[in-house]
Amino acid sequence: xxxLQASGGGLVQAGGSLxxxxxxxxxAFDDYCIAWFRQAPGKEREGVSCMxxxxxxxxxxxxxxxxxxxxxxxxxxxxxLQMNNLKVEDTAVYYCSVRLGYKRYWGQGTLVTVSS
Length: 116
Hints:
This protein is an all-beta fold. The chain has strands spanning 3-7, 10-13, 18-25, 34-39, 46-51, 58-60, 68-73, 78-83, 92-100, 103-106, 110-115.
């Protein structure tokens, strides 16, 4: 069974930092790109960042470039999202996700709230 467990969200003031973690199981972690998405209240879910299996290709949404850093520990089957200089507009539920074949799997999400 594919499982993605996101954690690390919380309440932080603007300018602060948080590190999200996504622990994965049930599939060959090393072979897949793990992505972070977020969904703010009243908005559609959007892609935030993704790192390829060998960390050779990394994607960041323009809105987070220079502030967020994705990393992965294949030995621990975990992907991290270091979020610095957080802004109020970063407030959202953050999800980690993996696409296996034609199906995309989602974790349960972790809430990040940035106060002004």
